[in-house]
Amino acid sequence: MSNVAFHIAKRVVQKERVRTLCRRTLRNARGRALHRHLVYSNVDVVHERFHANKHTDDVDTNGRMIVDGKAKYGKWQHNDRYVVLRAHDGSKFTRNPTPSSRAIFTSFMSTVSVFKENINATLDRKSGVPIKQVEKKDEEIAPMEEDEAVIQSVISGKTPSYSLESKLGDCKRAAFIRRVSLERVTGKSLDGLPLDGLDYESILGQCCEMPVGYIQIPVGIVGPMLLDGEEFWVPMATTEGCLVASTNRGCKATYTSGGATSILLKDGMTRAPVVRFGTARRAADLKFFLEEPRNFETLASVFNKSSRFGRLQNIRSSIAGKNLYIRFTCSTGDAMGMNMVSKGVQNVLDHLKADFPDMDVIGISGNYCSDKKPAAVNWIEGRGKSVVCEAIINEEIVKNVLKTDIASLVELNMLKNLAGSAMAGALGGFNAHASNIVSAVYLATGQDPAQNIESSHCITMMEAVNDGKDLHASVTMPSIEVGTVGGGTQLASQAACLNLLGVKGANKESAGSNARRLAKVVAAAVLAGELSLMAALTAGQLVKSHMKYNRYSKDVTAAKS
Ligand code: ADP
Q1: How many angstroms does the Cα of residue 511 sit away from the middle of ligand 1?
Q2: Site to substitute for ligand 1 among 206, 269, 372, 485, most atoms within 8 A of C-beta
Q3: How many CA atoms within 13 Å lie on the side-chain side of 375?
Q4: What are φ and ψ of residue 307, in 5° steps?
Q5: What's residue 86's pLDDT?
Q6: What is the mean pLDDT of the chain?
Q7: I want to staple 235 with a disulfide (CB 3.0 to 4.6 A). Which of 108, 139, 497, 523 is the partner?
Q8: CA angle, residues 213, 442, 335, in degrees to nearest 5
Q9: Which of 340, 383, 503, 517 to mutate for ligand 1's pocket (most ligand atoms within 8 Å of CB)?
Q10: pLDDT, position 106
Q11: Beta strands per DSSP E along 368-455
């Protein structure tokens, strides 16, 4: 009798084990999105075998299925055991169903048996998993046979690495293969550079070529920031300790003083081709032609055909000998606008060829634009959005929040941001650290980080007003280049940050108002950053707070190569 009971009990436990293993195997197989073409055939095999045998009571068959299930479960195990990527129902992320009490019991029993097997094994100090298992996991993420062939082909140079996406038709698999090939060729590990978690299809042909993973930058939040009567929570992507905390303190100072106010002075992206003539006379002819108001109308209609949003505003030109630099400025809706303005400029140049056949277009960009370089033309004329943002901070708030006094701030601003920058021969750098805030907001919201150069041009002014009872602080920034459509703004994480600011994508009611709003937010965050850093400098807190928030406390020599 006890034999029969034992037999029945064993069968019940076995069947539950088979069911659990099958479910986990399916989960793991689906999770390997890298091998999507393989996954589904493997899933089907596992699935079919399980269903064909699920009613058998034969102990040996069940035993074989357990062995088989265990092997497959290990083979397809995903790094994150709780996440199911690309489940059969089409959803991208699902979680395992809550296990039944029986499943919990079975799982407990299997843990006991694993424990027994490994009771004498050395445990990995970090994970607590026996070393034997950690090693096994490494084997499991080794490439599949089909991938191996492609990897060899990339390493040998037969398949160009850049062609993987188009050849395989699977962007994530292409990134995986490129990455493994790179590791093998260089002998350097890319452990720590994540591969999973990025939608590789979304960057194809738009944001980055030949990806092998992505870097992680923490996103901090400052706010609420009160600007033009509205509250904003501003995301900042940075690895500089203190920056978010300090900007947040500045936001608190402006908020409690009634908020900041901003004015958009100009909104126009520029592109300046360089064209060459045989003589300076001919170059001047074109210059005068472009300055003639009647011609502007015609050129604007040619320019505007290139986009629904690009509208030519003006053309300024400068001569250097027989070369002419023509700076076109146009509105670009919610796009930062470099592509848009370039297309319009190309149309105009093609059109001008009819009247000036001797014009030689040397380059669509002649650096008089001027993009991603410090240049006086942007500082003086503006590029993108020109914004001024101001706030009046009461002396109590200067004392209680900023921990300093108005006179010290005004004096430091004059001697550092104005006189000091003049001594340094600064170009647009009449501020304490505008680029810190600009770069962090740009990274978080998918802007072009290289444009932080001219976008950070800023003059910070501080003045005592109302008989010294209040501080008037302002930042004037002539070249904030931002967009809420195009480029990196469409990537999921950056779009989430834009969404938080209420400026995601194109503004349907009024094209361009999302991008303009974002530019104002950047300026207001810069104002907060300026106030806080300047206050820290007057109070001598800078070094102390950086020691607290911005120091390595870990052994940097321990990094793996
Ligand atoms: P950029 O010129 O900043 O490089 P892109 O040309 O890549 O930007 O992206 C702008 C694209 O978005 C254009 O094709 C444009 O037609 C489209 N678009 C849709 N809505 C808007 C909008 N509100 N403002 C600007 N562009 C928009």
Answers
A1: 10
A2: 485
A3: 15
A4: -160, 155
A5: 41
A6: 85
A7: 497
A8: 100
A9: 340
A10: 60
A11: 384-394, 429-430
